[in-house]
Amino acid sequence: MTDATIKTDLAGGADTAKASARKTAAKATAAVKKAAATVAETAAEKTQVAREYVHEKTDAAVAWSKPKAEAAHKAAEEHPLALALGTFVAGAVFGFLLARNFDR
């Protein structure tokens, strides 16, 4: 009778597979650590840029709007009827435009 079994050295293959898996795992771990460090660095840079931008824009907005707000407040105290009428007209125009867009 003929022996049809395939004879292989399974023990040697397992050791090689384990070593290969360890090398692959080490490479993957290093790649993940590098990617995590890059992401953290990029996030920190973007956060700092956003902070600086917001700080600059806030300062500019406060400097620009404070005198305008004071002037508007003074005008509203002097002419309350004009303020009420202007607010009504602005609301009516905005409402008309909004309603017109919803009809489409």
Low-pLDDT runs of 5+ residues are none
The radius of gyration is: 36 Å
Question: Count of helices?
Answer: 2
The computed structural class is mainly alpha
Strand content: under 5%
Principal-axis shape = elongated
As a percent range, the share of helical residues equals over 70%
Largest sheet: none
Q: What is the number of domains?
A: 1
Distance between the termini: 87 Å
Can you walk me through this structure?
- The chain crosses the membrane at residues 81-99.
- Keywords: Membrane, Transmembrane, Transmembrane helix.
- The chain has 104 residues and is mainly α.
- The protein has one domain.
- The protein is 88% helix and 0% strand.
- The chain has helices at residues 10-78, 80-102.
- It is elongated, with a radius of gyration of 36 Å.
- The mean pLDDT is 85.
Question: SSE layout and pairings?
Answer:
Layout: H1 10-78, H2 80-102
Q: Summarize this, please?
A:
By secondary structure, the protein is mostly helical. Helix content is 88%, strand content 0%. Helix 1 (10-78) packs across helix 2 (80-102).
List keywords for this structure.
104 residues; mainly alpha; 88% helix; elongated; membrane; transmembrane; transmembrane helix
